[in-house]
Design a protein that fits this description.
This protein is mostly helical. It is 79% helix and 0% strand. It contains seven helices and no strands. The longest helix is centred in the first third of the chain and has 29 residues. The radius of gyration is 16 Å and the shape is globular. The N and C termini lie far apart (46 Å). The relative contact order is 0.09. About 7% of the residues have low confidence.
């Protein structure tokens, strides 16, 4: 029985890691593609509904930020932006020490136009990430952070 539980936990861990890698791929392409953004929103929402993990809330939030960029109607742009902001801030409230969620907020705030006023955490997120990225076991994430922050 212990062997079966171990195999199940290993399988769940593998599925979770695969899901994050897949979503990160959509994250890198979604800014320039409405279709990829819609896929990111759909897959991250499904993952969140199944797992209730805040990391998937953050991916969903970024998908909405991307859709704000792709929407042509200003009201839709603002609606997507507000939905993304709410979901990202909720994800951070639930898991404030999650490196990847803080990275998503840093990048989102750096790319948000200043007139929207969503730029208050840039310095604190940058400092948190620089202080903590070396403790991460996720080589893919560490590589992305080093590349993004040029450290």
């Amino acid at each position: 029985m212990k062997k079966l539980v171990f195999v199940f936990l290993l399988f769940c861990s593998f599925i979770n890691a695969q899901s994050l890698v897949e979503l990160r791929g959509y994250l890198q392409k979604g800014e320039n593609s409405e279709e990829v953004s819609k896929t990111l929103i759909s897959k991250s929402k499904n993952a969140y509904d199944t797992s209730k993990k805040p990391i998937y809330m953050a991916f969903y939030a970024v998908g909405n930020f991307f859709m704000a960029k792709h929407a042509s109607n200003p009201l839709n742009k603002y609606s997507y932006f507000n939905k993304g902001k709410k979901w990202l801030e909720d994800a951070i409230k639930k898991e404030p020490n999650n490196l990847e969620i803080r990275l998503m907020r840093l990048i989102s705030q750096e790319k948000t136009p200043s007139f929207l006023g969503y730029n208050k955490n840039i310095e604190s997120d940058r400092n948190f990430i620089i202080k903590n990225y070396k403790n991460s076991d996720d080589e893919n994430l560490v590589k992305f952070i080093k590349n993004y922050l040029k450290i």
